[in-house]
Structure formats: structure tokens, C-alpha cells
Amino acid sequence: MRLLTSPYLLLVLNMLIWSGNWIVGRWLRGEVTPLGLNFWRWSLVLAWLLPFTWRELWAQRAAIRRDWMVLAALGVLGISLFNFLLYLALTQTTAVNGVLINTVIPVVIVVLSWLLLRERVTGLQGVGIGVSLLGVLVIVTHADPAVLLRLHFNPGDLWALLAVPVFALYSVLLRLRPKELSPMAFLAAQVVVGEAVMLPFSLWAHAMRPQVHLTVHVMIGLLYVSLLASLVGLTLYNHGVAKLGASVAGLFLHLVPAFTTGLAWLFLGERLRLYHLAGVALVFTGIYLTTVAGRAKPVVEAPLP
């Protein structure tokens, strides 16, 4: 049970689930708008959560009022904004460009954790971050450095780049979450805020044109992104940040392109090559150096200025 509840193992599972979110977002781009996919994704999550969490939310209303600014920021950043930008990027950019930009998130998390929470980063942890990032580059460039010279930025790349600091700040702010709320109630509180922010935009967009074409593909995709990528995935990530800190948990995001490569081979018939295996090995090595070998002594966290 100790192994099965390990935050390290749960974060690996979390990244595998989130890798599927990239594939689903790309798969449904012609049938659902980015705003429609994000709004209905979290609407389903709220429908799953509220029957089980509303009593706790009411009982902890004092803690919610006390930390309402943190919950509001987390809801806007993690629910409304980040996933919308991700889906918007996937309609206009290639998988290589999007995943490559996404790998910058752990580095930004480390910087923001140092600036805002004064989390220390050891020398070995810095090496681990570099090794993990190198593994991602091996995967997305096919072990050919010339690929980097051929990359060009389009509007989708810029949307993906804008999503980087959004999720990094969300990860750092998770350390300030109200401790009285259970993981499920905490997620429900964020979703309520995120849905409230998206509702007027969704109504306006739907008045302009339909945001969702309800097909079998769309229903399957919505079930995946709501139940797994949202409900399960974000709960696992919040748990990992609470146990390990934003800097360490954020490094696991490097597994997303590694797992996405495997899922593309499994479901889309793309070939698995030697550079894929080499990149995955480097990613796991970097995570080991940062989370185990390079673990720093605990330090007292400072509040946000």
C-alpha cells in the first residue's frame, strides 16, 4: 500500500493520463471549439463532484472565505485559462512545437518557487532538470539537432508559450491551498470558480455559433477529459505538489511528451524508434536525480509577498 500510494508513482500515472489529454484535444479539434471543450469538460467534472462534496464545502465555508483569493486564482489559472490555451494551441500548431514549448513549464516552476516561496534548488537537482529536459529534446527532435533550426513559431506556438507561466504559477500557488479541504472538495471549489468565469464567454460564443458537434467521438473524448484528465489527473497532481513541492512535482511534466510518444505509437500506429527509448531513459534519470539523489533538506516556506 505504501508503494501504491507513493506520490512519485501517482505522479507518473498522472502524467500518463495527461498525455492522453493532448491526443484527445488534437483528435477533436474539428468537432469542438477550444472554449466548448474546456467548458463542457469542467461542467461534467462539476456534475461528478458536487453530489459528494457540497456538504464538505458548506461545512468548510469559513476556510473558503478566508482563502478565497487563493481559490479564485487557482480556479482561473488551472481551470479556465490553462486548458483553454492548450486546446487553442492544438488547433494551430504541430505536436512537436507544442510539446517542446510545454517542457519549459518545470523550469518556470522552479524559478517561481524560488522567487515566491524561497524553495531551494540543489546543484544535483539542477543537473537532474537539465538531464530530463535533454531527454525531452531527444524525443521531440528525433535526436537530430537540426530539427531545432527548422522550427518556426505560428499563432498556436504563441498560445502554447502563453500557457507556460499560467500552469507554472498555478503549481506554485497550490502550496497555499486551504488545508481544511479534502482533495476532492478542493478541486470542486476550483471548478466552481473556473466555470463561473467561463460561463459568460461560453454563452456569448454559443450565440455566435455552435461550440460542440455532439458525435460519438466527442462524447468519448469528453468522458476522458472530464473523468480522467480532469477529475483524476488534477487530484493526483494536487496531491503530488502537497507531498513533494511544486519544483519536484513539476519536473514530472517532462514525462508528458515521453508518454505521448508511446500513446501515439499504440493508438495512432506511429513507429517507436531508438531515440524515443533513449529520451525516455534520460527523462527518468533526470527525475531520479532531482527527486531522490538531489533532495534538499526541508526549509521553512515564506508566504507570498
Tell me what you see in this structure:
- The protein is mainly α.
- It has one domain.
- It contains 14 helices and no strands.
- Helix 2 packs antiparallel against helix 4, helix 5 packs parallel to helix 9 and helix 13 packs antiparallel against helix 14.
- It is globular and about 50 Å long.
Outline:
The protein has 305 residues and is an all-alpha fold. The chain has helices spanning 7-27, 34-59, 61-66, 68-90, 95-102, 105-116, 123-140, 146-150, 155-173, 183-208, 216-244, 246-251, 255-268, 274-293. The protein has one domain.
Topology overview:
Layout: H1 7-27, H2 34-59, H3 61-66, H4 68-90, H5 95-102, H6 105-116, H7 123-140, H8 146-150, H9 155-173, H10 183-208, H11 216-244, H12 246-251, H13 255-268, H14 274-293
Describe the sheet with the most strands. none
Order of helices and strands: HHHHHHHHHHHHHH
Q: Could you tell me the mean pLDDT? A: 83
Oligomer: single chain
User: What's the N-to-C terminus distance?
Assistant: 39 Å
- Structural class category: mainly alpha
Note poorly predicted spans: 296-305
What descriptive keywords fit this protein?
305 residues; 0% strand; globular
